[in-house]
Each structure stands twice: as structure tokens, then as C-alpha cells.
Write a structure and sequence with these properties.
With about 300 residues, this protein is α/β, with parallel strands linked by helices. It has a single domain (about 75-290), classed as Rossmann fold (3-Layer(aba) Sandwich), CATH 3.40.50.150. The chain contains 9 helices and 13 strands. It has helices at about 5-10, 100-110, 120-130, 145-155, 180-190, 215-220, 250-265, 275, 300-305, and strands at about 30-35, 40-45, 50-55, 60-65, 90-95, 115-120, 140-145, 160-165, 165-170, 170-175, 190-205, 225-230, 240-245. The chain has a 7-stranded mixed beta sheet, sandwiched between helices. A 4-stranded antiparallel beta sheet has the order 1-2-3-4, covered by helices on one side. The two termini are about 25 Å apart.
Amino acid sequence: MTKKRKLVLGHFCAIVFALPCWAASSSLGTTVFETISPHHHILVYERDGIRTLSFDGSMETRMSVADPTQGHFEYTEYFHMAWLWNGLISNVLVMGLGGASTQRSWERHYPHVAIETVEIDPVVLDVSKNYFHFKESPKQKVHISDGRVFLRRSEDKYGAIFMDAYVQNRYGSSIPYHLATKEFFMLATNRLTTNGVLAYNVIGSLQSSSADIVGGLYRTLKTVFPQVYFFPARTSRNVVIIATMTRDKLPFSTIQQRANSLLYYKRITLPTFRDRLYSFRAEPPANSATCPVLTDDFAPVDGLLKTGY
């Protein structure tokens, strides 16, 4: 890397950084399982009837032990919003398995939808099966691979792609830069159906005044996708970004009409679906004009690692 590029990366030190959710600082609870894989320090623990999967100190997945359909993080429900732009989803691709909250939810509510997951760590697959009620089946398949390599080799098209992957290094946790660039999103559009949707989970804010991951991803996605929307969670700093292949920008009134139809015909059976609609945001984040477009040649992860989030 040239000296000039190092300086440029340092200038945008807060762009690509995200965790699935912040780790608790209090006592974790009872350890159920712990190991170190080639990719993560993996910890499964329980407290007050909630089982939690932790990667490298961050909370990845939660699940109620008594009722595995409950206890999950709020942000996972916003992946269901893909139906608002594509009412004919027959298959989805999820990047990142974790404790399989998203996979189990889609299998339960949409048994006709085929779900494929790309997970780089085979140990995570074992943990998900052994401790989080995940099962592979003809409709629920897992590929052990890097996400971008999988997309490049695949010839399939998906009704939706859900991005929920992150990596750990000696400086902290971050989104894999090669899954957050213009070139990656161009590849993703080639693997989406005509009305396909890409949903990306990140940690951030729509009101940040300085450059951050939400603004950076917005600008980058807008170079490839016609429309980009947001669903910020109420109980965490997670923001699910929705990028659509459809060109028309939808107002909230149209979103409500589509939701009413999906619910009436029972295409959607998620109990909280209507309530989650009210997190919908169509305007760009406050800092979007100051954020760079992320590319394979310029994805400022290294600058971030010097200062943290």
C-alpha cells in the first residue's frame, strides 16, 4: 500500500465498522459452550432464559430457551420488509449464519421459500445446529464459503439477499470490506431477480454528522441500485438498509398499502410486521454528502482500525 493511500484511509477513519449488536458489559451468565475457531472466539451462554451467541465479545444471536421463536434481536425482523418490494420471493440468500435467527424465522413464516446461507466458518454451522435449533434440509441449505466467492461462482438468482456478516481482527470488529464495495454490489445485482432486494444490517445512525458506515453504504449502494431505504431498530443501533432493483421511489402510504395486502392474503405472517413498518425512512442519512463511495481500491477499513468506532 502506498503512503498516499494510507493517508487517505486515515482521513475516513470511521467508515466501515459494524457489529451485529453491542456486547453486554455485565456478567454474561452461564457458559454453555466455548471454543476458538479459525475465524472467531465463539461463546454460547445463558442468562434469565435467554441463550446468546457471542463472536469475539459481540452479541451475534439471542434466542429464548423455552420458545426458540422468541428472544431474537429486533433488527432480524426488518429482513422481512423485502416483501414490500418483491411480493413473489421464492428463494433468498443470507450471508452470515450466526445462530440462524433469520433462517429459522423465514422457514417458519414462509415454508415455500428456499433459503440458502453462505457461512465462512464451519464451526458456526455446528454451533447453530447444536445450540440454536437450526436444521439443514432441502429448503434450508448452507454453503461453507466466502460470500463474494460464492456469488461470483453461482449462476442462481435470488428474490432477496440478506447481508449480516462481519469479521474480527486485532483492532476490533468490522464489515468485510470486500462485501461492502461498489464492485460487490454490482455482482449482487447480477444475482437478484427483476424485483430483487438487498438488505444490509449495520450499526450506525441516520443522524451522524461525520462520515460513517451508514452514509458510506448509502452512497455506494446508490451508485448501483435505483432506490435505497432504511429501517432503524428502536432497541439498538442496528440499521437495516434496503436497496431495491425497482426504480420508483415509494412513499410511506404505498408501503402501508402493500403491507395491508400482504397481511390480508397471509403472504406475511410475522406478528410484528405492521408495527415494524413505522421505522421506514426514505430520506438519505444526514452525512451522505460527506461520505465516500466504497470501492475495491478504496474501502477505508485500515483508517478505521486506528481509532475505533
